Amino acid sequence: MTAVLSWASTLLAVSILFIIGALFVLQAARVLEDLWLAWRTPAWEEQVMNLLFAAEPSPEFVRRMSRPWTRIVVQNILYKVAPNLDGASKEKCAWLFEAMGSVDREIWRLRARSAFVRGRAAYRLGQMGSRRSIQPLIGTLEDSWVDVRYAAVLALGRLEAGEAVMLILTHAGGFEAYHRPAIVEVVKRLGLVDQKEARAYVVETMLVQSSTFRLGVALAGALQLFEAIPKFWSRFESVSAETKMDIAKAVGTMGHPSAAKALAMFLNDPEPEVRRAILRALGQLGEVSVIPWVIPKIKDPVWDVSEAAVQALAALDQSGETLAGLLESDEEDMVKFKAAMQLEAMGVVDRWTEEVTTASGEALHRVRQRLRLAVKYDADQPIMKKLWHGPHVN
């Protein structure tokens, strides 16, 4: 019994030592690989860049590139320069990836068990620029992991795969909120504006389904889908504050003045972030008929909303006459203070100062009166700020 235990202990100790030795050898191999790549990369980088922008590759060069160690060096160089290539150099880069077998390897990895490997493969296929990878990437839009699907969308965008637009849209409900801006950019690059079916899908399907509504709003704003605006109003009061802000931003981006009055109707929304977003959008739209709705918001109890109202008035009436009228009115001092600040920022006060030297009669009297008021309330800025105790938008 003692002999058996002794034999087992010896075997265990040898096994542990073998495992430790194997780990050391593996680590040493990795260090040697890194050193080899670092030593070889500068020499190969010049050859690869010359190949991309000048000479035709010889069969011997292609054969050497296909060797495992050399291929790693060349691939790393191509991955680094590929995003900045265009035209003939971009096509040659894709050809090099094909010649080295890199495209086939990454397409095969799209079926790997590891989600990380699949996502990296999709990303690399986008960098490689081979259109042969478009169909495999479209298939990856069905992947069970959202980040793999996201990598496939980005890759399809780099490959300018216009045929994938509808499929990207139909899978849009499975993406997270932080994916939304990049997806909008991809769809914009692929040319949704020219695809009637895709436009109709955004308006009639994405803006109806709750899971895709916010992405549909972002797409409609970025791509100027004016036919989507009525869909915004039908759901405005039932959606979250964040979605309302998205709608306001989209309408402002579209720049369609006819939507201004409908948007102004929601200026009494209970959320200050929404009121501020609406005021900013109204300023972008430039529709002067909404000025009567904007003026009362200068008295909003939230400072940032009040500031947004003043800035909207400045954008809607760049002559400054509306703000000057507030300065001369019977409004409370806080309103006059904000009007004076904005007039100063717009350069209107400087213009009045110049007009004093040229005006006469009634015009001179009015300019002097406005300057006195502007100087009075502008001089009281520190006091007015100190008196203000209202809340701010975070």
Describe this structure as you would to a colleague.
71% of the residues lie in helices and 0% in strands. The chain is mainly alpha-helical. It is elongated. Helix 20 packs across helix 22 (361-379). It has 23 helices and no strands. Among the domains are: 162-239; 270-394, no CATH class. The N and C termini lie far apart (75 Å). The longest helix has 52 residues, at 2-53. The protein has helices at 2-53, 59-65, 68-81, 87-99, 102-109, 115-128, 134-140, 146-158, 165-170, 180-190, 196-206, 213-222, 229-235, 241-254, 260-264, 272-285, 291-294, 303-316, 321-328, 333-346, 348-355, 361-379, 381-387.
What's the SSE blueprint?
Blueprint: H1 2-53, H2 59-65, H3 68-81, H4 87-99, H5 102-109, H6 115-128, H7 134-140, H8 146-158, H9 165-170, H10 180-190, H11 196-206, H12 213-222, H13 229-235, H14 241-254, H15 260-264, H16 272-285, H17 291-294, H18 303-316, H19 321-328, H20 333-346, H21 348-355, H22 361-379, H23 381-387
Helix pairs in contact: 1-3, 5-6, 6-8, 7-8, 8-10, 10-12, 12-14, 14-16, 16-18, 18-20, 19-20, 20-22, 21-22
